[in-house]
Structures are given as C-alpha cells and as structure tokens.
Prior knowledge:
Layout: E1 12-17, H1 21-30, E2 39-44, H2 47-56, E3 61-65, E4 67-68, E5 71-72, H3 73-82, E6 89-93, H4 98-107, E7 111-114, H5 120-153, E8 157-162, E9 167-170, H6 172-178, H7 182-186, H8 197-210, E10 212-221, E11 227-238, E12 244-253, H9 255-301, H10 307-334, E13 342-345, H11 346-355, H12 358-363, E14 367-371, E15 378-381, H13 383-400, E16 407-416, E17 419-426, H14 433-437, H15 454-464, E18 468-474, E19 478-486
Parallel strand pairs: 1-2, 1-3, 3-6, 6-7, 14-16
Antiparallel strand pairs: 4-5, 8-9, 8-12, 10-11, 11-12, 13-15, 16-17, 17-19, 18-19
Amino acid sequence: MTQPDELSEKPIRVLLVEDDEDDFVLTKSLVSTRDNANIHLDWVSDFNSALEHIYQNAYDVYLVDYRLGERTGIELIHEAFKAGCQTPMILLTGQDDLEVDYSALKLGAADYLVKGRIDAQLLGRSIRYALRQANVVGELAEKENKYRSLFERSIDAIFVTDRNFEFQEINPSLENLTGYSDEELRQMHVRELFDKAEVYEQLRRQIDESEQVKDTEIVLVSKDRKRIDCLLSVVAIPDKGGVTNWYQAIVRDVTQQKKAQRDLLIAEKLSMTGQIARSIAHEVRNPLTNLHLALEQLKEDLPPDDPGLSLYINIIRRNAERIGQLITEMLNSSKPRDLELTSHNLNDAVRDTLYLVHDRLQLKGMKLVTDFTTEDCAVPLDKEQFKTALLNILINAVEAMKEMTGVLTVKTIPINERAIMVCVEDNGSGISEANRQRLFDPFFTGKQGGMGLGLTTTQNIINSHRGSIEVESQEGQGTTFRLIFPK
C-alpha cells in the first residue's frame, strides 16, 4: 500500500476521460509542470473505451468529464463502482453543475473540479489527495476485512450488543451454539438465553460496576432447550467521550470439558466405592458365613417347640441375609458392567420397562404419557441392564409424585444422526440444586431406609453403554432425566 509521503515521488498513472481533445491538451499542460512531474497522463475520448481501461485496473486515478457524448461521467462512475472498481475518480464539471457535483460525491467520487478554475497546483493536489484517501480507505477496508474474517470464522461464539444488551452483531458460531438464526437472535434479549435470570442480573451488575467480566461460568439454553455449559467474557466499548454504548462478548462452549470432568469424578467415586465395597465384603462375608453356620448349629441344639426361640432365630437369619444382599448390591453398583450389546429398538426397550411400573401407576391413580419417535431408533443395548437403569429412574419418579395427580411423561427423541435420547419427566416434588449435584453419589439418598445406590447403578450402566445422563429439576415442579445413547 502506498504511503502518503511517497506520493510526491512515485509515478501516478492518471487516465483522463474527455471527449474534447482541446481539454486534453489543456489538462496535459497542467500536469507537465515541475510540481506534477510524477503524474503521467493518458487520454481516452469515449465512454466504452474508458470502461475497458477501468476493468483492466491499469491506472491510479481517473479524471472523468461529465459530458461524454450521449453518456455522462456520473454513469461511468456508477458502472465502475458497480463492477467493483476501488480506484479514485475525480469528476470534471461545468461552472453551473453543483447538483451534479454533489451527486458525484454522494455516488463515491473522490472529488470534483470545475473546468475553467483548475490550475496546475489545484489539479496536482486533488489527484494526490484522492490517491491518499483511497490508500487510507483501502487500509481500513483491509483491516475491517481481517477482523470481520476473525469475527465470522471464530470457533467461539461472539456477539456485540447495545447498552441495553440487545443483539447488534452475531457471528455464525453463536447461531450454531444456540440453534437460533441471526434473525431470531436479533429479536431476542440476551437474558433469554440464560438458564437462570438471576445469573444474568448478577452479571449485569458486575459489568456495570467493572465494565467487564472474564471467563465466568454460565449455563445457556439452546432453542431445543438443551443446557450448555459456557465461559463468558464481556468487555464494555466506550465512545470517544467515555460513554459506553456497546458491549462485546465471547462465549466458549465447555460442555464437553465439563462432562469429561464429571465423568472423571464419577469414575473416581466409583473406584473408591468399589474399593470400600470389596474391603467390606472381605471383612464382613467371612463373619457372616460363620454366623450362618453357628445359627444352623444353634437351631439343632435348641428345643424345636419353643416359638420364641424360632422367632429370634428367623430375625437373625433374615438380617444376616440382608447384610449379604447389601454387600452384593454395593459391589454391583460400583464395578464396570460387562455388557452384551446387541442392536435393539429403543422404543421397544422403553415400553418393556414401562410395563414393569404399570401396576404402580394404576394403584396410585397416576397418568402415563408417552411420545415415541417414528424415526429409526436402533441402538446397541444390553437390554436387561438398560431396563435396570431405566427402572430405577421410573420408580423414583413414581415415588416423587402425589397419588391421583401424578403425571409421568416418557419420550424418545432423536438428537442427531449419531445419538438418541430417552426423556423421563415427572411433576413430583422436585430436587434442590444441592441435592441434584449429589444425586449420583454412592450412598446418597432421600428415601427412608434407602441405600442410595440405585442411581449410582443407573449411571454406571449408562456410562458402560458410552452414553450420558442429565438431570434438571425444580423444587415443587418436578424432575426431568435425559438418557442419551449413541447409535
């Protein structure tokens, strides 16, 4: 790109478009002075020839006369810019053509000169000014294109809002992240994307105070109601007077990273649970075996007709068996599942599992609503293990709802070509956020007398299928489980 201080030395190629040869001779004399020695002038006399030279992009500046036979210089400038020409053009007009002059400037001409008032100094200055301005505009356009390309091609979602946090500029990554189109987002407010309105309000206060936030964890909700874990950075953009009228935000999707962290934490917890379970099993099962043997021996030595003794012996036997069963459940809940995967229709597998809770729903006067996809939903499953995992969720849902008013909704929903989801919704008591975070922890339970291993087992089974499980809940409104399986 030519720098301004180089314009007086570097040759400037100028094409005069003029249908009067006398005017060409006059203009030639003006650029032949010492001050204009680096200006090299060529001449064409008609509209079409000028347009051909413009298409070839062989000149630095064009001097265009307004009168070009049946055509005008205004038309030539219009045609040139329409064809993508960015070379500066100076219009030459008569003394009474001010409206034409203003029209030329509005159209994009770099300058206009009035014939009869042009001298060598004015002409040279106008040509250099036009070229200098073209260079500046070109540099700005180049920078704008570079930053526009960064904006458009960024993997992270980027958007610009006004001071009211309404969308003004949106890059394609934000559309891909949220599922909303550019037009839909421009009709929305930023807070509508937030999972929780109070989080948005807190961020607004923080931005108002410090004019920025950096890598703040938030949860957005996509058009298909999917929760997206993100890192948000926002910076205020003040004008020259220091007044903030714009905000620029960058949103980074960290859903997969968060999932990986959760999966690692789950694996660590299951490993620890397994170690504890194996230690307990080793330490408890041997004494239990001795207890059973001693109990059988005691039964032989006690009078068989004493009902009180028989009652106590049965209590001891049942509780010993219960301890053995709990140890087995602990071991099974934590160890990796050995699956026998075969292709199954997910709708059929869900229907078979729902049949197992059908009587519970009827006895409690609860309603079952199903919505199964009609698309292909064959997935690799260990059907019996799947039924165990889903049954734990269904039983919890039934127990969380009130009799006669409970509604259990079960859906199968294709996510994309590679995954399908089972969605279980209830209108029960819901789960607090603190408890939701601990829902899959071993031994965590809200049930009286529960072991807290049912959902641990469920998660273990889903993970063994290389799937994932998500939970949303609001106290007093119900809970939604989403089980996602790869095809």
